[in-house]
Amino acid sequence: MSQGVLDVITLPFRQGLLAVDEGFLIRGDFSPSLEATFGRSLVAEQTYQPAFERLRQAGIRTTAQLEGRHSLGLCVLTQHKLETFANIARAYSHLSNGGVLVCAGQNSLGAATYEKAVAKLAPLLGSLSKAKCRIFWLARAEEDLDAWSPWLSYATPRPIANTPFVAVPGTFSWDRVDAGSEFLVAHLPPGIAGVVGDLGAGWGFLSWSLLTRYPAIRQLDLFEAEKLALDMARANLAPLGDTRQIRYHWSDVRDGVGRGSYDWIVTNPPFHREGIQDVELGATFLNVAAAALRSGGKLVFVANRHLPYERTLKASFKTVSVLAENGTFKVLLATK
Ligand SMILES: C[S@@+](CC[C@H](N)C(=O)[O-])C[C@H]1O[C@@H](n2cnc3c(N)ncnc32)[C@H](O)[C@@H]1O
């Protein structure tokens, strides 16, 4: 999310159009102007661990699941359409009667479209444009949420067609199995066993595939920054949990996942952040995997063919081989 939107959302308050009150912030992050405007009056709901941690370290009250009703709500629009509709509706549902909801998002994310859609459900009280962002606000006028229920339903996990899995709109590949992960699973090597890590586990497709195919996996650790996805992994893996030890870590993989403790690490590493390609993020995952594997431990992962990960691997692994390749993906196996 751009810092710009976190500055712009404070504008109606700094201009005296709205009064600061006790309230909440949905999908925000730490910003000095937010802190200067609202002090400690907001509780921040955030399920993306790095942002949650930045807010927490700044002394802002944080939660992964907003509760209660409040006089003021701030909602930052995300790049996921259904998630954003759900967040706006949830924010509205957490307002006390007469409470004010302020939404802000970048124009490039379609902020004006959300503004028009919201205006059809409740009269807007005001709007502003600044720094390529749009802010609009409204007050909760009615007790019943009937008009908002279609949007509220996007916050509910839904089945992924032709699979036994569920996922929540907005999380990675929430409506289908990712093609890269599918390619990886089709070319996993034999012998995956012992203590295994899945870095960036999403809603659990790789982990489920590992547990169902490799009975010699004694312990599987899932690491995922987005709690909404990790909660779905928990639900998707629940039927397998009695037989093997499965551990769920809501964490930023860039902070490390241990030293020398894993026999195998399997991953489909992210290489985008907020829609922008970030190859460094994927490379960091591989370096973190290298540190977390025991000597002789193995890393197997999938990447888009064009991504230059071989250089990163050479620094920390003894051998690297290509297990499979097609027009789009490659599956690499590296031994520490
Ligand atoms: C390419 S997806 C793979 C998801 C899942 N393994 C699958 O196969 O469907 C990468 C995952 O990494 C997560 N992620 C991104 N940055 C992360 C970080 N810094 N720490 C932990 N997980 C992260 C994303 O939320 C996403 O679920």
* Residue-averaged pLDDT: 95
Percentage of residues in DSSP E strands: 25-35%
- Strand arrangement across the biggest beta sheet: 3-2-1-4-5-7-6
Superfamily (CATH H level) name of the largest domain:
Vaccinia Virus protein VP39
Please give the CATH class of the largest domain.
Alpha Beta
Total number of β-strand segments? Answer: 18
What's the end-to-end separation, in Å? 36 Å
CATH architecture of the largest domain: 3-Layer(aba) Sandwich
Protein name: Methyltransferase small domain-containing protein
InterPro entries: DNA_methylase_N6_adenine_CS, RsmC/RlmG, SAM-dependent_MTases_sf, Small_mtfrase_dom
Pfam families: MTS
Domain Methyltransferase small: 164-332
Short description, anyone?
This protein has 336 residues and is an alpha/beta fold.
Give your account of this protein's structure.
With about 325 residues, the protein is an alpha/beta fold. It folds into two domains: about 150 residues, Rossmann fold; about 180 residues, Vaccinia Virus protein VP39 (Rossmann fold). The strands form four sheets. A seven-stranded mixed sheet has the order 3-2-1-4-5-7-6, sandwiched between helices. The structure holds S-adenosylmethionine. S-adenosylmethionine binds next to helix 9 and strand 11. One of its GO terms (molecular function) is S-adenosylmethionine-dependent methyltransferase activity. This is Methyltransferase small domain-containing protein. Pfam families: MTS. Keywords: Cytoplasm, Methyltransferase, rRNA processing, S-adenosyl-L-methionine, Transferase.
